[in-house]
Amino acid sequence: MGAPRGLPSCGAFSSMRQLTWLFLLLSAVLSAQPSPSPAPLIVNVEHRRANSLNGPWHYIVDAYDTGFFGYHGATRKDGFFRNAKPRTPADLVEYNFDDSPTLEVPGDWNSQKPELFFYEGTVWYEKTFTLHLNAGMRAFVYVGAANYFSRVYLNGELVCEHEGGFTPFNCEVTGRLKDGANFFVISVNNTRRRDGLPALNTDWWNYGGITRDVMLVEVPNIFIEDYFLALSRNMQEITGWLRLNGAGSGQTVKLRVPELKLEEILKSDSNGLAQIRIAVPKDIQLWSPENPKLYEVEFSNDAESLRDSIGFRTIETRGTDILLNRKPVFLRGISMHEEAPYRSGRAHGTKDSQVLLGWVQELRANFVRLAHYPHDEATTSLTDRLGILVWEEIPVYWNIDWNNPHTLAIARQQLQEMIQRDKNKASVILWSVGNETQLSEERLRFMRSLVGDARTMDSTRLITSALQPRSDVHLKVLDDPLGADLDVLGCNQYIGWYEGKPEDADATVWQSPYNKPLVMSEFGGDAKFGLHGKPDERWTEEYQENLYRHQLRMLDQIAFLRGMSPWILMDFRSPRRLLANIQGYYNRKGLISDHGEKKKAFYVLRSYYETKQQSH
User: Fold this and answer.
1) Direct distance between the N- and C-terminal alpha carbons of the chain, in angstroms, rounded to an integer
2) Are 329 and 564 in contact (CB under 8 A)?
3) Could you tell me if 170 and 283 lie in one domain?
4) Residue 239, exposed/middle/buried by CB under 10 A (0-12, 13-18, 19+)?
5) DSSP percent split of the chain into helix, strand, coil, nearest 5
6) Is the peptide bond before 372 cis (omega within 30 degrees of 0)?
7) Which of 49, 126, 282, 396 would suit a FRET pair with 196, their CA atoms being 20 to 30 Å apart?
8) CATH number for position 136
9) Same-domain pairing of 259 and 366
10) Is residue 422 within 8 Å of residue 381, measured between CB atoms?
11) Number of compact structural domains in the chain
12) Residue 75 scores a pLDDT above 60
C-alpha cells in the first residue's frame, strides 16, 4: 500500500501525528485500493512533443498532513487535491491555492523561502494550465525529480505516486485531461525515514520540493518508449534494442545514423521489443574525453520521429587497468554535489551544469563523480558533449535498513530509474551501488543484489561502490568482501583530516587482495576561503593545500590506482556542519567556495593533473 509510505514513521511524531498516521493506514486498508504506480519511464523527453509546466506553482505548507484526511472545506474524500472553492460567501473553506504564494519549479523550497530553510514535511503544489487536446495522442506528466515522496493529482484525481528524490517518473493521464482548463496538484514530502534512501542521516542538505523539470508529454498511441545502443566489446557491431509501448508483433521502426550511412528496419516481437545488431563502419569515430564525438541517431515510423545524440565507445577492465576503447585511462577526477553555484540550493538545468563542469575542466580533469545520488539529466547530457567521464550513484548511503524488504525494493527501483535514464550517455562509465556502507552480512546480501541488478540491466558498463579500508597504523587494506563483486574498487579515506596528520600519508602503504583497479573516490579536508595560517593550522587554505600535497604523494605510490575523485569540487550545505564562523551549515571541503572562489588546493590538484595529462 502506497499511502502509509508517503508519511514519516510514527515514532518521530507527537500523538496527534500518530493519530493522523493511523487514520491514513486504516483508510488504506479499508479501501483495499492499491496506489497507482508511475507508468514505464519514457526516455528522451526533451526531444518529444512536450509542454513545459515549469514556472510558478502555488503552494501550501502542510506540516500536519491535514490535506490528506480532511479539513474545513476539504472532505476526507477530496482532500486538498480538489482545489475546493467556496460556493457561497457563507461557506467555510480554510485553504485556497489561488491566493497562496508561489514557488518556482524546478527548485527546492529551502533556498526559495527563508521560513522553509529547515522544513521537512509535506508541501502541496498546484498549477492550473490550459490545454487544447490533439486527437489520437496519449499524454503523460513527466517529473524529472521531486524529493522525496510524491503524489500527483490531475483535476482532483490521483494519477500516480513515486518514492525517491533524484530519479524521474511519469504518469499517464490519457483520457483524464480536459480540453481547456486543467490543474495539477502534487504533494511532496521530504521527511527523512529509517526505511528510506537515503535514510535518517546524511551529510548534505535535504532539499525538498519539485527540483527538476515538469512536462506534459504527448505521444502517439503506439510510441517509442525506450531504446539502448552500445558499441560491442569487439568494436564490430552496434547492438541494443528498442521497445514500443502499445505495440504487438510486426510493428516496424526505421533506425538511421546518417553520418555513418547506417539504416536498419527494426521489427517488434509480441512484447513490442525489437533487437538491434548492425555492423559498424571502419571510419567510426570513438567517443573519448579527447574526442567526444556524438552521432545523430534517428528512430522513425509513420506516427513519430525521435532523435538522440549518442557516442560509441567501450569500457572494460584488464587486471588493474581501466580500458577506454581498449586503451588504459587514468581518471583525473573530482567529486561533485548537485549544489547550485553562487546562490546555493539544489542545482538544476544546463546553466548550473555549465558552471560546475566548467570548473571541472579548469582542473584539467577528465572525470567526475556525481555524489551521492543521480544528478540532473542536464549534467550527463553536458558531460557527453564535453568529454567528461562519469561515476553515477544511487543514495545507498552510510547505514540504511538492510533487513527491510521495502528499502531493498526502493534501492532497486532507483537503480533501475538511474540506468534507464542515462544508459545511452557515453560519458557514464561507472554505476555505483553505494557509499561508505558498514560491513555486515545483511549489508553484503543487499549490495550484492544491487550489483546483480546493475549487471542484468546494463552489461556494457563497470560496477563500483565507495568502500572504506581496513586500517592498521600505516597499512590500509581494501579487503571488503563486496570488492569481489565489483569491477572497480572505490575507496574513501581521510588521512590528515579525520585520521592522523597530513604527513602520515607519506608512510602509508596500500594493499588489496583483488586484482582490480582502484579509484580513490574521496579524500580531502576543510578550509574556509580567505582564512590563512600555517600548514598545520586547521580550517586554513594552507592546511588543505598541505594535505593535498601529501595525499598526492601517497597516491602516486599505489600500484593499482587508476583514478581519483577528491572530496569535493565546491562547498555545499550540510546540517551536520555546525562550527560558527567557519562552517555555518556548510561542508568546507570544496576546492572552490560556495561563492565561486578558488582555494589554494585547487591549484595544487590542477598542477598534478596537468602532469598526469602529459604522462598519459
Assistant:
1) 54
2) no
3) no
4) middle
5) 25, 30, 45
6) yes
7) 126
8) 2.60.120.260
9) no
10) no
11) 3
12) no
CATH number at residue 599: 3.20.20.80
Residues 148 and 161 in one domain: yes
Choose one of 292, 313, 334: the last residue of a domain: 313
Report the C-alpha gap between 367 and 333 in whole angstroms: 4
Strand, helix or coil for residue 609: helix
Residue 26 has pLDDT above 80, yes or no: no
Last residue of a domain, one of 297, 313, 329: 313
pLDDT at 599 over 90: yes
Over residues 493-506, mean pLDDT: 97
**pLDDT one-digit tens code per residue, 456-495:** 999 999 999 999 999 988 999 999 999 999 999 999 999 9
Task: State residue 15's pLDDT score.
Answer: 37
580 & 497 share domain:
yes
490-517: average pLDDT: 97
Question: Is the same domain home to 63 and 83?
Answer: yes
**Is the predicted pLDDT of residue 401 greater than 70, yes or no?**
yes
Are 487 and 557 members of one domain?
yes
Does 82 share its domain with 102?
yes
pTM (predicted TM-score): 0.92
> Which residues, 6 or more positions from 175, have their beta carbon under 8 angstroms from its beta carbon?
none
Report the DSSP pairing between strands 462-467 and 488-492: parallel
Q: How confident is the model at residue 78 (pLDDT cuts 50, 70, 90)?
A: low
Task: Specify the 3-state DSSP secondary structure of 222.
Answer: coil
Same domain for 403 and 426, yes or no, is yes
d(CA 435, CA 204): 13
Range of the domain at 180: 2-220
Q: Are 147 and 123 in contact (CB under 8 A)?
A: no
